[in-house]
Design goal:
about 110 residues; mainly alpha; 2 helices; rod-shaped
Length: about 110
Amino acid sequence: METKPNAIESLLEKAEQYGKTSIELLKLKAVEKTSNTLSKLVFYCVFATVILLFAIAVNIAIALWLGDLLGKPCYGFFCVSGFYVIVGCVLFFLLKNYIKTKIGNSIIIKMLN
């Protein structure tokens, strides 16, 4: 039978190993979350860049087409930019809180999972 000091030392060693293992596990979880978040961020940035380039090309084409219909190319660009001002105002005034809430909730969910 072990003596009490040896049993306490054994218990302290196991507690120390448990603590080290727990810290290592937390580090690995943090690395996993960081790598997942960064990889998604890079993917979304690349995807957004491709979509943005496509949207710019389409908007220039629409502006030139409208300018051709209206008689001067600058009129087409005015129409397209006016459309985006209206869309921007609608998004800002009507959907600002909704979008802010959705993004905030998404960040909180990602941080807690």
